[in-house]
């Protein structure tokens, strides 16, 4: 079992050595060999400025991989795209619509740029979390922009075609621009990911990146795909930087040759997902096994649950309150680690939960 060196890893160095880190979303597994080889080969070659528009072969691979058409622009990462979208398509004081709970940078991009959050909570049903389409429509009149997350972080929902068609119909009816973060798209289990833009090509900007599926968070890069006028509007609010040449080489190798590694990694993740789901049922936590991502969203009976579990179990999880108001009894657990690490973390968590009752 080869874990990242603590000094080189945010995940493993942010807390004292006695804490098991199951928080920030990267994997403990080594990167695919074709990706490592591509980085080595690129590093031995030209490392000067690339063309500002980026690698045309990578653009073609991205469009082919997601089955979409449109303009492609590179950016330093998907989070940068969220901030740029809020700046490009809304003004201070205006509303921005999104589902909660949601990845914290969605909320930060709205709050820090002095926009108003229009929160449309996911509905918790017996079958799992579902989009509240009537609620979405009630809020749609008050905004021009919907920030969408699919597969959804932190719940792991992979939305159905019926749900996506519903979102598209509402967006079209109310002239919304939709920015869809599909960073976790390759990480699905039983049901494949379908891009929202298939149903709303004229109004959707799709954000993509290799950081999650291919464990390349330390080589930040992202891309936006969509209609040229919307992409050009977004680009005016992106940093004036060049695409990272090593990141482009790594992403291209991942798309061309990373399939076997990704398939094997998904098998490991699925086993961990099922283990967490069985454990959550055993200890009585609210949980729906994620359909995508390597993140488990757990509902506990404890207020400020993440702080309590860090203190009492020495396991670092993401606090639910950072994903939206009213979720402080929830935590997000990253299960993209080795079984031995996961088992020890679950053992500690179970002990701390037992003490709280």
State the helicity in percent bands: 25-40%
Structural class: alpha/beta
Mean pLDDT across residues: 96
Name the assembly state.
single chain
- Low-confidence runs: none
Distance between the termini: 35 Å
What is the rounded Rg?
A: 20 Å
Q: The biggest beta sheet, please?
A: 7 strands, mixed
The number of domains is 2
Element-level helix/strand string: HEHHEHEHEEEHEHEEEHHHEEHEEEH
General shape: globular
| Name of the CATH architecture of the largest domain | 3-Layer(aba) Sandwich
CATH class of the largest domain: Alpha Beta
Number of strands: 15
Beta fraction of the residues? 15-25%
Superfamily (CATH H level) name of the largest domain: Type I PLP-dependent aspartate aminotransferase-like (Major domain)
Number of helices: 12
CATH topology annotation of the largest domain: Aspartate Aminotransferase, domain 2
Order the strands across the largest sheet as they lie in space: 2-10-9-8-7-3-4
Describe the structure.
The protein is α/β, with parallel strands linked by helices and 357 residues long. The protein has two domains: 6-30 and 260-355, Aspartate Aminotransferase, domain 1, CATH 3.90.1150; 33-256, Type I PLP-dependent aspartate aminotransferase-like (Major domain) (Aspartate Aminotransferase, domain 2). It is built from twelve helices and 15 strands. It has helices spanning 10-13, 33-43, 56-66, 78-89, 104-111, 133-140, 161-173, 228-235, 245-257, 259-283, 305-313, 339-355; strands at residues 20-21, 71-75, 95-100, 116-121, 123-125, 128-130, 143-149, 177-181, 204-208, 222-226, 286-287, 295-299, 315-316, 318-319, 330-334. The strands form four sheets. A seven-stranded mixed sheet has the order 2-10-9-8-7-3-4, sandwiched between helices. Strands 11-12-15-14 form a four-stranded antiparallel sheet, with helices on one face. A two-stranded parallel sheet has the order 1-13. Strand 11 and strand 12 (295-299) form a beta hairpin. Helix 2 runs antiparallel to helix 9 (245-257), helix 4 (78-89) runs parallel beside helix 5 (104-111) and helix 11 (305-313) crosses helix 12. It is globular and about 55 Å long. It starts with 9 loop residues before the first helix and ends with a helix. The mean pLDDT is 96.
């Amino acid at each position: 079992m080869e874990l990242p060196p603590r000094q080189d890893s945010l995940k493993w160095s942010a807390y004292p050595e006695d804490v098991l880190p199951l928080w920030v979303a990267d994997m403990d597994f080594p990167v695919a060999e074709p990706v490592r080889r591509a980085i080595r080969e690129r590093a031995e070659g030209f490392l000067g400025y690339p063309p500002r528009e980026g690698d045309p072969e990578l653009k073609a691979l991205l469009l082919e991989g997601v089955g979409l058409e449109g303009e492609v622009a590179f950016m330093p990462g998907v989070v940068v795209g969220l901030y740029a979208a809020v700046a490009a398509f809304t003004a201070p004081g205006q509303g921005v619509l999104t589902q909660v709970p949601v990845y914290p940078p969605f909320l930060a991009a709205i709050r820090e740029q002095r926009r108003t959050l229009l929160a449309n909570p996911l509905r918790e049903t017996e079958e799992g979390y579902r989009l509240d389409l009537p609620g979405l429509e009630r809020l749609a009149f008050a905004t021009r922009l919907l920030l969408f997350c699919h597969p959804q972080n932190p719940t792991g929902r992979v939305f159905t075609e019926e749900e996506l068609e519903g979102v598209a119909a509402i967006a079209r009816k109310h002239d919304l621009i939709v920015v869809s973060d599909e960073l976790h798209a390759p990480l699905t289990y039983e049901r494949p990911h379908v891009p929202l833009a298939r149903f709303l090509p004229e109004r959707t900007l799709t954000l993509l990146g290799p950081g999650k599926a291919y464990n390349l968070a330390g080589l930040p890069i992202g891309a936006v795909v969509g209609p040229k006028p919307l992409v050009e509007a977004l680009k005016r609010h992106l940093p004036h930087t060049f695409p990272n040449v090593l990141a482009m080489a790594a992403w291209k190798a991942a798309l061309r040759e990373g399939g076997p590694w990704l398939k094997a990694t998904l098998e490991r993740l699925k086993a961990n997902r099922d283990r967490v789901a069985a454990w959550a049922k055993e200890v009585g936590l609210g949980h729906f096994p994620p359909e995508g991502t390597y993140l488990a969203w757990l509902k506990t009976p404890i207020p400020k649950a993440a702080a309590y579990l860090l203190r009492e179990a020495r396991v670092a999880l993401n606090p639910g309150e950072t994903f939206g108001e009213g979720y402080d009894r929830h935590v997000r657990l990253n299960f993209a680690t080795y079984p031995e690490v996961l088992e020890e973390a679950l053992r500690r968590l179970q002990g701390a939960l037992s003490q709280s009752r």
